[in-house]
């Protein structure tokens, strides 16, 4: 007992007297020149000794085999740490792989394997239990004290590993700058906390616990004094996760105009020479339904108070209803002059498979068409004149590609014909719903693809619970700059690189299937970060597993003091 007490007191003394910067080991890959640049930049900014930069010679690929890891990373790293009777092994607490060091060893996160290099139990199927992990509301010793005390007393060595990485070396360097900026200036008014949960689960479902954890994290954020947004997918448009800003993108090769509208609304208007009767036709090259409750509408009229509108729902209908209504209406000076609602069943193939919609206006009769099929009609007995000089379309959640917009009179004389031979987007008046996720400071949610949903402030920390959020963090699925903001085209489900490009300071994710119960919960990370633990400590307190698929990205020393 006296020996354990002596060891504990000695550990506390070491943890308090040796600066953390001296206990950081930076890993760089000599085969990737930018790796050295990132490592040197971090060392200079944090005053980490030059002797604490370790040079690997390994593949520049994000993925290496277990054998390559053993030969090119683990053996040389252990040799370095074990030299001089293990002086560096005892000293080092944090290991920081720099841009260019592989991300994955076999099917595991390289960093998680490095963290547990000295844990033994090589015969055990991963994952191992993380002995430093603790629950929300607990206040375990800081990692330095725990490592030098409890762990050392039990002859156990573990590292907190968090990398400086991302889609580019500049983004990796920027993580250091943003961490320092956050430490200097972060306060309760620096940004907004966003929490994104489903709100559709029942207590009998395993997902219910995940939803509750996210809700609890939002409540904790409010109690801390942060402006907090709890996004409930069950109550949102089309039950969407935090949506990206809607956008339009002209394709000069295909001569088409793509409308990206995930969880959002988009509209366009244009004017033409006035007509008494007209056909407004929209031709599509394709469309993609998002979740439920998608609609598209065509409109002819003379402003916001006088118009004729055709609203077309797509399957699955709102709330997965078995029926929905096609609505056709005439409004004059804000009052309904004629209206019909055609009840339709959720026959997906018939309803969603079309190449054109048409709104046809004749004196005394209004009709709506899907391809060559009339789907709704109403007699206009109001006698109220409505000159037609504007046309427009609007959509909720539906993503689609336009190939032609046409307005013609009953004789076929064309007043507007846009086949998108050139980029004509400037000819339209656009109505896009406001972007969400601006001024993001803390972000935690689930479950969906890596949309361009957030803009982070310096010092921000965030993550998304989804499978394969860090399958790749340097190589986009589609590197074309034109699709940067387009749905999930750039990164698929890889939230880690998406958030890094959006400006996050620290994040975490999974290089393979993580299982929800073995994924560091954001509420736990934030609880300890807000209590004064640094990012490295906070992540490893929250992460229950070691030698696993989870990876942290950001400066492990980042420790914001909420001013």
TrEMBL record:
InterPro entries: CHP03790. This is TIGR03790 family protein.
